[in-house]
Specification:
By secondary structure, the protein is an alpha/beta fold. Strand 10 and strand 11 form a beta hairpin. The chain has a domain of 180 residues. The chain is built from 9 helices and 13 strands. Helix 3 runs parallel beside helix 5. Strands 4, 7, 8, 9, 12 and 13 form a 6-stranded mixed sheet that branches. Strands 1-6-5 form a 3-stranded mixed sheet, with helices on one face. Strands 2-3 form a two-stranded parallel ribbon. The protein starts with 14 loop residues before the first strand and ends in a 27-residue tail after the last helix.
């Protein structure tokens, strides 16, 4: 049984605050920026990059969701739905330039098309855009409430080899296997979009950029295991969709989503560090980060630490 099941304990008397699963990366990249947006509730317009990402997420979910129910929609319908989200009049968007705005529709259409044709047919999902109950994570400093919606829960198939090793195969191969035992395991898959969402490894093969996404995916894994009451015992994944000129898509396993959050015998995990930060109210600035910009930080105009 997974160690993450331990998080179902009742909350302690002191609730330190609520941290959305999608904001854990920001909490550690610039705690002060996180404070402005999540504690002081300062709101700013969505960036063009963020709006493009939101539209791509919506289009992929429109395509994947019906398949869980045995239904389907066409790729064209998924693209149309994504573009409708892109042009949502209820969302204020701060486009970087007129060129970005003009290019946005083509980027969204290309990305959703490629996902539907290249990624979706090769996987089996157990959940799509699943909203989890609020999770109370107890620490020695108090309780952190975390909320979020899981992009995907994926079922993966493995053949058990004679030497005990596991070889991943497609579900079609697994269903046709007559000799070797087949094991099915689940994981959390998170879809990430952006100019740097896809990179290259030492062999010049395309890979999804992991960066600090392991923190968010780790929290998603905690929430999913508690919600479903079963372990996510296959490696977590990032599906990276580049919004740059290449339009590349790549899926990569994340080696470890647990250690950074839970810590080791010698070092505290980032959940404990976050709890201490919330307890002390110590939200430090990080003016050297890429995200230190009026495009990304809601509190930019009142922050005294940037140039």
């Amino acid at each position: 049984m997974s160690e993450f099941f331990n998080f179902r304990a009742a909350s302690s008397p002191e609730v330190l605050g609520t941290v959305r699963a999608s904001s854990w990366k920001t909490l550690f990249s610039c705690p002060l920026s996180w404070f402005y947006a999540n504690v002081e509730k300062i709101r700013s317009a969505s960036s063009g990059i963020a709006q493009i990402g939101t539209a791509i997420h919506a289009g992929t979910a429109l395509f994947d969701g019906p398949r869980l129910r045995g239904d389907s929609i066409s790729v064209e319908e998924a693209v149309e739905g994504a573009i409708a989200i892109l042009y949502n009049d209820d969302v204020e968007v701060n486009w970087d330039s007129s060129a970005q705005f003009k290019a946005a529709e083509g980027i969204v259409a290309r990305s959703v098309n490629r996902y539907c044709h290249e990624i979706a047919p090769n996987v089996v999902y157990a959940a799509v855009e699943a909203r989890c109950e609020d999770l109370h994570i107890n620490t020695k400093y108090g309780t952190i409430v975390t909320t979020g919606t899981i992009d995907r829960v994926r079922e993966r198939a493995y053949l058990s080899e004679d030497d005990g090793a596991l070889t991943e195969v497609t579900h079609r191969v697994a269903e046709q296997e007559q000799i070797k035992p087949v094991l099915y395991r689940e994981n959390v898959r998170d879809i990430k979009t952006g100019l740097q969402a896809v990179g290259y490894d030492d062999n010049n093969a395309r890979v999804a950029t992991i960066g600090a996404h392991h923190l968010q995916v780790g929290i998603y894994t905690i929430m999913t295991e508690v919600e479903l009451q079963r372990p996510m015992d296959a490696p977590a994944e990032i599906c990276g969709i580049s919004t740059g000129k290449s339009g590349d898509i790549a899926v990569s396993d994340i080696r470890d989503v647990r250690t950074a959050l839970l810590g080791t015998g010698e070092r505290p995990g980032m959940i404990e560090l976050a709890a201490k930060m919330l307890k002390d109210g110590d939200f430090r600035p990080a003016p050297g980060t890429v995200m230190c910009s009026p495009l990304y930080c809601a509190g930019w105009n009142r922050c005294p630490y940037h140039a």
